[in-house]
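Supplementary notes for students who missed Thursday's class. We covered one full example, reproduced here. Read the sequence, then the structure, then the short commentary at the end.
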Amino acid sequence: MKYAVAAALMLTTLSANAAGTWSTLLNYDHIFSQPSTATSNTASIISGSMEYAFPRSLAFYGGASFFLQDSFESTLNIGARFYSADPILNMGNIPVWSFIGLGNYFVDDNAYYPEIGLRIGVNQLSRVDVSLKVLNSSNTAYDNHAAVGIGFAF
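Structure (token representation):
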């Protein structure tokens, strides 16, 4: 029964009449913690993606990413986020939503990451994201790397 309810909720969220919005999503993630067993010195990740946000708090994104480490590495990324339905707080006229997400970088041995964060609605057309990610991979160059990120969606 749980699977039937979950499937019905997903179909409702992803229905064709749920017209959402496309936006450009630019991210900078700074690696602030990595294990001592890491085989490379990953410093940061820069990403440029397209995001499609459904009206019911679900968003999918994908694009290109660049790992700045001992050697420069480019890759593709995909992910999904689930935003709070209503702002968790308002700072004057500026709404702030929370989100949780899951994504993947298509590097050697794939690096997937859970993320949490806040989306700040600067104005009607642009938003600022602040997030925390933890990379997981079977490749020690990316495994157990924690990153704090700042993003801009417009």
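Commentary. The mean pLDDT is 87. The beta strands are 21-33, 44-53, 58-68, 73-83, 89-91, 94-105, 111-121, 127-135, 145-153. If anything here is unclear, bring it to office hours.
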